[in-house]
Each structure stands twice: as C-alpha cells, then as structure tokens.
Amino acid sequence: MISFLMKRALAAVAALTFATFSVATCASAQDYPKRPITMIVPFAAGGTSDVIARAVAEQMGIALGQTIVIENVAGAGGSTALARASRAEPDGYTIAIGNAGTNAATYTIYPKLPFTPDSFVPIAMVAKTFGIIALRKDFPAKDLKEFIAYAKANPGKINLGHAGVGSSNYLICKSFVTSAGIDATLVGYRGAAPALTDAIGGQIDGVCDAAASVSQAINDKLVKGLVVGSTVRLATLPDLPTSAEAGLPEFEAQGWNGLFAPKGTPPAVLAKLNAAARTAVETDAVKKRFADLSTVAPDADEHTPEVLQKLVTRDVEKYRKMLADDANK
Fold first, then answer.
1. Nearest 10 degrees: Cα torsion 151, 156, 162, 164
2. What is the mean pLDDT of residues 130-149?
3. What is the distance between the terminal CA atoms of the chain, rounded to a whole angstrom?
C-alpha cells in the first residue's frame, strides 16, 4: 500500500512539474522577445552572408520589436560559428545564418565536428544567391575560354580565393575547377571580404564569390567578372555571361541562405522568428537591398522550416559525394 501511495504521489509531482514547466514555457514564448537577439554570422564582416544577415536582421528586429545584434564569428569555413551556436541556450536569443557550405558540406570536410545537422532546427530560408568567378583586373585572359586555356597551360599556378574550406564560396570554387577541368590552387580566407580585397590588390588571381559581395567591385572595375553560374544574366551585371553562354554549362552555382536555431528552441519561439523572417524579406527595404546585390528572396511557398530542412538534407548528401576527397584535410 505504501509503495502504491508513493508511486501515486511521485506521479502527481511529476505531472505538476510538467504542467508548471509547460505553462512557464508557454508564457515565456508569449513574452518573447524581451531582450536583444544575437544573430551569428559564420564569416567576417562584408561578405555575402554578413550583408544578407544585416539586411534581414534589421527588418526582423522591427517586426519583433527588439534589436537583432550581428556577431561575426569567422574560422574553419563557418564551423567555428556553428559550434558556438550549437552550445547556445535554446531560448531564441541566439540564432545563426548559414548556407550549403556551413550547414551541409562542412560535415564531410570536417567529420569530427562537435555538432551534427540535428544540433539545429530550421527557421526559414531568407535568400537565394548566385556564384561568380572574378579575376584581378590585370589577369591575362579576357573571357572564360582564354582563362581555361591559360589555366591548362599553367597547371597549379592560378590561385583563387574563397571564404574558407566548407564555405559556400569554396563550393563555388570546387564546382568551377571541376567543371572546367583545370588545376588551380584554392586559397582559404576567414571570409569573402578579405579574399576579395586580395584579388583587388593583385595578391591572388581571382575569387569564387557570390554576386551579393562581388558585384559592386566588378561594376567599379576593381576586378573583372568572368562568369556567373546561373541560367540567366543578373540585372546588376548585364554584361557578365552565364556559364552556358560562356561555354561551360556544367558550372552551376546557385545557393541559399537560411536561419537556424539551437535544437530545443520552443516551437512557439521558432514560429515567431519564422514570421519575422517572412515579413523581413517582403519589405521594400530588403527587396531593394537584395536587388542591388543580385540576390533573390525565397518564393512565398519556400519560407517554411520544412523547405529549409529539405535543402539541408539534400545538400548534406550532395556534398558528401562531391567532397569525399576533402575529408580530414
């Protein structure tokens, strides 16, 4: 009898504790956010992810009634930042922006990471990006055909900068050199901006970058655009040929950026963040900023967490096959 009564009492305590926790969680979600939110960007300031993050964060903050603070955490192709994000309290006050590099390819390139795809929950895709190959302005090739011929005549001597092994820019590089059948040295930086700076200064031959961060430099003639891995020309770079037009249709470089939160973040909080992200990318301010950057907002049916999760799952497998030789490097 005593044992039975003790079990009943323990069950009652457990039920009361769960109910109290549920009410507290619900109340917390209703009040969210009560203080500023940190958005971790896995690269140095000035690169594609950073530019997109700042545009979206400003408008999300307005929608949520709280400031979203950008925290740039560069290193290891974005995995340093995601390790930091994975350890954060899952309360909605720390989120991260990622892409196919940081949230998919990285698991093949760095197989001993302290986090897995399951360490994060998707919030929403916020942007679609387009990869570009740009060269230092005095590079001795005026188009893609001449560049490939030069590269094949000088194997291993051309160096192309990217934002670090595992970044989306690295994937642009890999796709490009594989499609072109050339031997080039891929030079990793702590972000797209410092790589572009070195290309402008002539320290490297070129960069694999997204239109969001390299378009202005091309238009200002600080570097010269070679090709865009897109099926259509970009409005901001009307003279830059697509890969098919340039004679290399195999080169495809269309990517995405999405927001993620640590596993365990309450569903109600995730719903608020998703709604704020949807609102942000539909504002005139973000639309204009994206247009200036040759970046596209997701379609109306692509804002859901499920769509972003499918992209992650697809790209984890895609890059596991493409980057098998890079594992453990």
1. 160
2. 97
3. 64
Decide the pairing of beta strands 120-136 and 254-262. Answer: antiparallel
Kindly state the tokens that stand for 101.
Answer: 């590099």
Average pLDDT over residues 171-188: 96
Flag whether pLDDT at 80 surpasses 60. Answer: yes
Q: Measured between alpha carbons, how far is residue 31 from residues 14, 25, 39, 94, 279 in Å?
A: 26, 10, 19, 16, 19
Res 327: pLDDT: 57
Q: What is the pTM of this model?
A: 0.83
Q: How far apart are CA 119 and CA 131, in angstroms?
A: 28
Residue 170 contacts by C-beta under 8 Å, 6 or more apart in sequence? 77, 101, 105, 162, 163, 164, 186, 188, 208
- CA dist 152 and 32 (Å) reads 57
* Structure-block tokens of residue 193: 């901006």
Helix axes 284-292, 267-281, angle to 10 degrees: 70
Give the residue carrying structure tokens 């940190």: 38
Q: Rounded to 5 degrees, what angle do the CA atoms 114, 167, 223 make?
A: 155
Q: Which tokens belong to 181?
A: 């059948």
- Find out whether 126 and 281 touch, Cβ atoms under 8 Å: yes
Asked whether the beta carbons of 207 and 162 are under 8 A apart, the reply is yes
Dihedral angle computed from the Cα positions of residues 326, 255, 285 and 59, in that order, rounded to the nearest 10 degrees: -60
Determine which helix (DSSP H) or strand (DSSP E) holds 226, and give its type and residue range.
strand 223-228
In this model, does residue 137 exceed pLDDT 80? Answer: yes
Distance CA 211, CA 110 (A): 27
Q: Using omega within 30 degrees of 0 as the cis cutoff, is the peptide bond preceding 33 cis?
A: yes
Q: Is the pLDDT score of 28 beyond 90?
A: no
Residue 169 structure tokens: 């820019």
- Residue 235, helix vs strand vs coil: coil
Measured in degrees and rounded to the nearest 5, phi and psi for residue 228 equal -115, 135
